[in-house]
Amino acid sequence: MKPNRRHVLMAATAAAVATVATGEASTAQTAAAADPYGSGALGDWTVLSHSVATEATITYVRDNDGVYMFGDSISVQDGKALASQLIARTGKTIAVHNWSGRPTGPAVDALQNWAVRYGMPRRILMATGTNDIFNPPVFAAQVDRTMRIVGSRREVVWVNVQCARTAKSAAVQLADQRNSAWINSQLLDAEKKYPNLTVVRWAESLAAAPSHLTTYLREGVHTSVPAGQTARNDLILKTLMKV
Q1: How would you classify the pairing of strands 50-52 and 67-71?
Q2: Per-residue buried b or exposed e for 38-49, using 16+ beta carbons within 10 Å of the residue's own CB
Q3: SS3 174
Q4: Percentage helix, strand, coil, to 5, in the chain?
Q5: What is the pLDDT of residues 114-138, one digit of tens each?
Q6: What are 192-214's pLDDT values in tens digits?
């Protein structure tokens, strides 16, 4: 039977719909493959703001029971205030290596560089992990690498993370929160594994009261100043003074 014009048009329409549906599915699959964890991609952090101590400060800290600090943009903002508070309370100094946007891997590289070049003090502060939301599975190995570099005779204090970027879509905020929890879970597992690793529970502090997320954070990530900065630095200082 020869198909009439109506049959031909219906078949063409069905084929077009199927092609569009296939194309949408393919686009969604491509997007999922490019962003498997939902938080997007990490940008070029090497061009962002940073704060790195001078060699004189590093060696002074090493020789006078100070603290090495390795952090990201939160620490670039809050590190100076933290150092001032530590000096005021204990007389001890912090040598910082803080870099905005940096994930944990390169922060551990910086730790290794200082360890080889200068040696290490008794306490190491790691305030890094927020930028690992873009690739959470790599985080645990960097914690293990940190502990190998530091060894068993020094103390590592590590601040856990809270990120849900309010400028992003609801789906991305949910992914950020899920990935933050994933990072924190790996950190808690490491704390059980290493007796000389102590976790500063910043995420739990934020979750302790409904108002904390809006009072202590200004866009779902960085601390507000002075309220959030003070709250986070106080948690860090209390832990540093105990180890």
Answers
A1: unpaired
A2: bbeeeeebeeee
A3: helix
A4: 60, 10, 30
A5: 999 999 999 999 999 999 999 999 9
A6: 999 999 999 999 999 999 899 99
